[in-house]
Every structure is written in structure tokens, then in C-alpha cells.
Specification:
Blueprint lengths: L8 H11 L10 E4 L7 E6 L4 E6 L3 E2 L3 E5 L3 H16 L7 E5 L4 E5 L5 E2 H6 L7 H15 L7 H10 L3 H12 L16 H8 L2 H16 L3 E3 L8 E3 L7 E3 L6 E3 L2 H20 L4 H33 L8 H28 L5 H4 L4 H21 L6 H12 L3
Antiparallel strand pairs: 1-2, 2-3, 3-7, 4-5, 6-7, 8-10, 9-12, 10-11
Helix pairs in contact: 4-10, 9-10, 9-11, 9-13, 10-11, 10-14, 11-13
Bound molecules: adenosine-5'-triphosphate (ATP) and magnesium ion.
């Protein structure tokens, strides 16, 4: 069947009414396009009492148009990854009601009562329990798609199901290529120009990034979300499930440290942003301490959950050893710090920046926060293997970024 883009509210309503019974043929449905992302169309369908979300992938990137074609297989991958997350970590994603291959669309639960973690951090909200739940989510995502849990054939089957060449190509370019050279897609704040050109000539840095890129391209370790920044994480500290993760269209089987690294980087980007954000310095500094403590809690929760899962479920006689689990977690930490540095670089010099830093209106003040991001990225990329544990790392990055 040929693909047809939804071109009216009625198209979206017909689609929902055909494939779900949520609205029971209610005549009073409204459709709102709520997508604030770059790639797809996202609609909320609402009857005043209930609502749901429809996400449709066109054969190109939404904000660019037909000039940048993009495989619609991404929406199959997103639907499958959401279902996989629901299995490995129940309640961690919006429920998928229907995936339709012909329309390249997903119908899913509306998590409108949740707020993006990025926005919550920008507002310096207190988020009790969120970092711990995120750590458990990452641990389960890693464990249930790793060789500690899966049979040989099941592992190969997820590698096959999540081959994602178009979106991996974008990641390889925007994380590992553009921000390490003077690329036309880059977005460099004027006062940062000299620092950027030093960055592009730093051979030690580029060697370390090359090793991380090789891992990204070749190491089929676990099923990754692929885009786990704080805009893909939605939170409601008062809910039973405090965390809901959306938008896994970049999912693929890759190196275990990638998602964790991206997540940590986004906490640290907020940390740097707080140093020059609006508001009282004491309040911002106190929140920076909260952010560092959250990163420690996230890691602590992740490692506890992962060790527990391995002790309960691992059958392979060689992988059962707690020494092997410890070694795996140690490599996870090192890799994730490197990937965190790469994510911080691309959000500072590359095409897509983050609101945590971009909201600093004054160009010079923003450049100071961006310089902190690069200082942290430099430390994490070059010295990832030299830290003895997460508290040592958070103490070191705190030194580079506290409000002064
Ligand atoms: N299940 C949902 N419930 C409520 N809101 C949602 C849901 N899914 C998406 N949204 C809203 O739509 C926005 C865009 O969604 P999403 O990030 O999935 O789209 P995208 O086009 O893939 O974006 P990106 O360019 O970041 O890849 C989200 O930031 C969120 O505000
Ligand atoms: Mg997306």
C-alpha cells in the first residue's frame, strides 16, 4: 500500500477511530499538532475527557523537507523499541496502542501530565526519586538486551531488527564528525571561535574520539535508545512511574555506554548553564550541587540494579562471575564518560544546541558557560579511564563549572 501523509484533522481522526476504541465514536474530537521536534509530526487527539498521541514519520526530515530524505523505517524501529522498553522496564514508556506500517504512524498514550526533564532542570525543580528511577531504567535496558541475559539467537535477532542505517549515519556525523572540524553545519558562538579552532586541531582529543566512534560503529553490545537526552525523558515525581522515555527512533544495537553518556552529558550541560543563568547565585549553586548528587544517584541506582539482575538471571557460566559484572560496569563507566564528552562537544560547537545553555541571552556570558562545557568535555574525553568512581568525576566537573 502506498504511503499517505495525514493532510487534515479528519485524516488523523479517521486513523484513530479505525485502529482504537478509545473514543467510542465520539463526534467531538479535536486534533492539535504538538510536535516541537525536528523530524516527525506529532498530534494530540482529544475528546475533552481522554486524549492520545499520533506520531507520523514522513519520508524526509520535517523541518528541512524533501531536500533531506530519511527512511520511514525509523517509525517501525521506534514502535518496536517502545515495546521492548515496556517489556524490560514496565511503565517506563507511553503505552503503544497501535503501530501502522502503511501509514508510518504510531498511536500511543498521552503523557501530557509529564514535563520534559530538560525543562524541569532549567526551572531548577526538585525531582525526588527521578535520578534513581532513571538509573534503574538504564540498568534494565542494558541488562535485558545484553549477553548477560539473551540467548545467542535472541541477541542476533535484536541486532537484525534494529539495523538503523539512516539514523546511525546522522549520529555518526553530528556526534563524531562535525564538531571536531570546521564544518559548515556547526554553530559556534562568536567569542568561542578561537577555542573552537584549538579544539579542531587537538590530536590527542581526536584520537580519543576516534576510539569512541569505532565503538559506536562496531560494538553491538546492547539495544540503545540512541537519543537519550533530557528532552526525550519526561518526568512527574508524584506519579507511580516518575519517568517516561519517548522518541527512540535512533535505536540500534551499539556500545553500552552511549545512552548513559548522553544522559550524563545533558545533566552536565544544565550544570554549566546554571553557572550563568538568571537568578540568585546561591540558589543556582545549590542546584548545581543537586545536579551532581543526581548524577551520583543515577549511577549508584544503575549499578545496584544491574548487579541484582545479573545475580538473579544470568545463566552463562562464565558471565555469572561478579568480577566479570564489575569489569563490565567499569568499562561502561569509562565509555559513558567519553561519550558524555562527545555529546557536550556537539551541543556546544555542533548544529543542535540545548536550551539549558542557549537561554543565557548575553553572548559573552553564554560563551563562559560554553567554555565550561568544553573544559568538562576535554576532561571526560581525554581522561575517562583515569577516574576511580562517579563521585570523583562529579567532584572534578563541579570544580570546572560552579557559579563564581
Ligand atoms: N506520548 C506523548 N505524550 C505527550 N506528548 C508527547 C508524546 N510524544 C511526543 N510528545 C510531544 O511531542 C514532542 C515531539 O515528540 P518527539 O520528540 O517524539 O518528536 P520528533 O519529531 O521525533 O522529535 P526530534 O526532532 O526531537 O527527534 C515532544 O517533545 C513532546 O512534547
Ligand atoms: Mg525524534
Amino acid at each position: 500500500m502506498s504511503f499517505k501523509q495525514f493532510s487534515s484533522d479528519q485524516d488523523v481522526i479517521d486513523f484513530v477511530q479505525t485502529h482504537t476504541a478509545v473514543f467510542n465514536n465520539s463526534p467531538d474530537l479535536t486534533v492539535t499538532e504538538i510536535g516541537d521536534g525536528n523530524i516527525n509530526f506529532v498530534y494530540r487527539v482529544d475528546d475533552g475527557a481522554q486524549s492520545l498521541i499520533v506520531k507520523q514519520a514522513l519520508p524526509y526530515i520535517r523541518v528541512i523537507g524533501e531536500a533531506w530524505p530519511l527512511s520511514q523505517d525509523r517509525i517501525r524501529i521506534e514502535a518496536k523499541a517502545l515495546k521492548q522498553s515496556e517489556e524490560s522496564c514496565p511503565g517506563s514508556v507511553p503505552e503503544v496502542y497501535h503501530y501502522d506500517a502503511a501509514s508510518c504512524a504510531i498511536i500511543m498514550a498521552d503523557i501530557g501530565q509529564y514535563q520534559s526533564l530538560r525543562q524541569a532542570l532549567i526551572e531548577r525543580q526538585s525531582l525526588p526519586g527521578v535520578a534513581e528511577e532513571l538509573g534503574a531504567y538504564v540498568a534494565k535496558s542494558l541488562f535485558y538486551s545484553s549477553d548477560f541475559y539473551l540467548s545467542s539467537k535472541a541477541k542476533k535477532s535484536i541486532v537484525q531488527d534494529f539495523i538503523n542505517p539512516d539514523l546511525c549515519q546522522i549520529s555518526e556525523e553530528v556526534y563524531f564528525w562535525d564538531p571536531f572540524c570546521d564544518h559548515e553545519r556547526n554553530n559556534v558562538n562568536t567569542p568561542l571561535a578561537a577555542r573552537a579552532s584549538e579544539w579542531w586541531q587537538d590530536a590527542e582529543l581526536k584520537q580519543a574520539v576516534a576510539r569512541l566512534k569505532m565503538k559506536f560503529q562496531n560494538q553491538a553490545q546492547v539495544l540503545l535508545h540512541g537519543d537519550l537526552h533530557t528532552g526525550s525523558v519526561f518526568v512527574d515525581p508524584s506519579a507511580e512511574h516518575k519517568v517516561k522515555v519517548i522518541d527512540p527512533e535512533f535505536a540500534f544495537v551499539g556500545p553500552a555506554g552511549f545512552d548513559l553518556g548522553v544522559l550524563i552529558a545533558n545533566y552536565l550541560l544544565n550544570l554549566a548553564g546554571q553557572s550563568r543563568a538568571a537568578g540568585e547565585p546561591e540558589e543556582r549553586h545549590a542546584y548545581q550541587q543537586v545536579l551532581l548528587s543526581d548524577v551520583n544517584s543515577l549511577w549508584q541506582s544503575l549499578t545496584e540494579s544491574f548487579r541484582r539482575l545479573a545475580a538473579e538471571h544470568t545463566q552463562d557460566p562464565c558471565l555469572q562471575s561478579s568480577d566479570i559484572v564489575d569489569a563490565w560496569l567499569s568499562e561502561l563507566l569509562t565509555d559513558s564518560l567519553g561519550f558524555a564528552g562527545v555529546e557536550m562537544t556537539r551541543r556546544t560547537l555542533g548544529v543542535a544546541h540545548v536550551a539549558d545553555v542557549e537561554q543565557i541571552e548575553d553572548e559573552a556570558a553564554r560563551a563562559e558557560a560554553q567554555t565550561m562545557c568544553l573544559d568538562m568535555a576535554d576532561l571526560l574525553i581525554k581522561h575517562a579511564g583515569q577516574f576511580s568512581g562517579m563521585p570523583v568525576i562529579t567532584a572534578a566537573v563541579g570544580e570546572l563549572s560552579f557559579c563564581r
